[in-house]
Design brief:
By secondary structure, the chain is α/β, with parallel strands linked by helices. It is built from 4 helices and 7 strands, in the order βαββαβαβαββ. Strands 1, 2, 3, 4, 5, 6 and 7 form a 7-stranded parallel beta sheet that branches. The chain is globular and about 50 Å long. About 45% of the residues are buried.
Length: about 190
């Protein structure tokens, strides 16, 4: 039987307001996801999440960062910044896929669960053929995860109203890339226009 899953991408403290790599609207995305899960508890058969989870990702951390290939230190294992935002209700999350321990990683499909299982394998093992994505940031990790989901053969939709984006220019590129890969785009992302 076909099943669907919600993939919550990187809704972590460091990517929300007050974090070391904050995206405007991140806390609102966390709260919005929680509201949706509460009001539509049967909408998804499975709910999983990804986390940026850095130990020593090398050139992924820059001093100074170029904000293209290198970034301020963020989501370091063992820090509060790597934890899920407190507005995100994690009670429905069945598995968490960590990515980027020792190298840059944007897609949740690069990550693994605590037992080493990869996201694509977990989804297939649970009979999932359709995925919806929400989270942070639309133009980086949400984009990469959505493109990989489509490449892996999952019918993929991004609920843009429950994503937060870094910048208009990179968001436009990301939306065109996702659309071109057959990803369904629903709604409009929160975009930091600063």
């Amino acid at each position: 039987m076909a099943r669907n899953a919600l993939i919550i991408v990187d809704v972590q403290n460091d990517f929300c307001e007050g974090g070391s790599l904050a995206v405007a609207g991140g806390a609102g995305v966390a709260a919005g996801i929680s509201r949706l899960l509460a009001t539509e508890p049967d909408r998804w058969d499975h709910v999983v999440a990804t986390k940026d989870y850095h130990v020593d990702p090398g050139a992924h951390f820059g001093d100074p960062p170029d904000f293209v290939d290198s970034w301020p230190r963020h989501c370091v294992v063992g820090t509060a910044g790597s934890e899920f935002h407190p507005e995100l209700d994690t009670s429905r999350i069945e598995a968490v896929f960590h990515k980027g321990e020792h190298a840059a990683a944007y897609s949740g499909f690069e990550g693994h669960a605590a037992d080493g299982e990869r996201l694509a394998d977990w989804l297939r093992r649970h009979g999932v053929d359709r995925v919806d994505l929400v989270g942070i940031a639309t133009d980086h990790c949400v984009r990469a995860t959505a493109l990989d989901a489509a490449r892996e053969g999952f019918a993929t939709r991004v609920l843009l109203e429950l994503t937060a984006a870094v910048a208009p220019a990179t968001t436009d590129v990301a939306l065109r890339a996702m659309d071109g890969a057959g990803v369904t785009l629903h709604g409009d992302p929160v975009i930091n226009a600063a």
